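pls ignore typos typing on phone
cobalt (II) ion + seq
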Amino acid sequence: MTDFFKGIAPVTFEGAHSDSEFAFRHYDPDEMVMGKAMKDHLRFACAYWHSFAWPGGDPFGGQTFERPWFGDTMDLARMKADVAFDMFQILGVPYFCFHDADVRPEGADFAESTRNLEAIVDYFGEKMDATGLKLLWGTANLFSHRRFMAGAATNPDPEVFAFSAATIKTCMDATHKLNGENYVLWGGREGYETLLNTDMGRERAQAGRMLQMVVDYKHKIGFDGAILIEPKPQEPTKHQYDYDVATVYGFLKDFGLEDEVKVNIEQGHAILAGHSFEHELALARELGIFGSIDMNRNDYQSGWDTDQFPNNVPEMTLAYLEVLKAGGFATGGTNFDAKLRRQSLDPEDLILAHVGGMDACAAGLKAAAAILENGALEEAREARYAGWNGDLGQSLMQSGLAEIEAMVRSENINPDPRSGRQERLENLINRFL
Ligand code: XUL
Ligand code: CO
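k done
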């Protein structure tokens, strides 16, 4: 252990009546929920970037956090890893996630950056063996460095496309070496600021080609994790090509990759797209591309991606309801893509933010499971569509407009509107919160 979290013991489940801040009230890793241990439902992961690489800046001010590992040397990168693994163990999370740029200093050129990454990957490997920690996903940061300011795959300069492809390869190698269970592509700057200087057709084709190469390389190296795209509608660019789940699905269909790539859905990104989190989850499930989630929350007034730790149990219940209805996570999990507020300076804040988020997820999962076990919600939904199981519903799916017109006339079909019962169903949900 380093002494960054000195005096903080591993956090354990104490139950709802505990008065300790450093305790779980809902997250009991081994408690069985619908026949599966809670830890296997939730598959928690910590995000390296927000907790260990982000300095606390906002558009009006720079660094607020002063961490002893901030700096650009390999020794500091190893100290950062030591502290990160301390936190993972204090929390008892099974997984973590990282970008290349979070974990290694930038080198003078591509070769040096790659050497730095490989050295840290070896260091991670030793720490993972020693602790049992696992990698939920790896990814490449193709958005922070100024070379990516006009995009990575969608850049007008083919040299940036080449640099990006090479970087993705090294990050896929790193993920594969650490037995990562997924590889994520968030197209941070894959979008445009103004159509005045943008050739949208070319940029889409370039993004499609890059994704095809990622899928080819996955098969070439025998990586059996999932490739996941993380949709986001805007920020940092004004318009992003991976706007939301529906847009990503259209893109995958266009390039014939809908059976190869799934989605990593983030709560805050769903809100920015004008959707609810549960809408995005339900759609991905229906389209067969549900993969994993980034769990955080947005501020509903500020209109940007605030990446706050989640604490809204009623909303999270609806999200886990969709996850459970999708059959739960296969390779995916619950990644806390969340950061402290920039005034939350203390090491304790970092631990307690995650403790609260984990507990809120556990409470949401348990409520969602209780709703499914109760069955009344699903029964009401089934009943609403019951007509489609009967003769009329079946025959409509095989008929044409003219035949249906004749039938409506001959049988004098005259529909009688029925209640959608929304408030009754909302009351039903609240009984489980
Ligand atoms: C940005 C975001 C990223 C991705 C990984 O909004 O969510 O952190 O999760 O690149
Ligand atoms: Co994210």
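Residues 41 and 383 are 29 Å apart (CA to CA). The chain has two domains: 12-374, 379-430. more later
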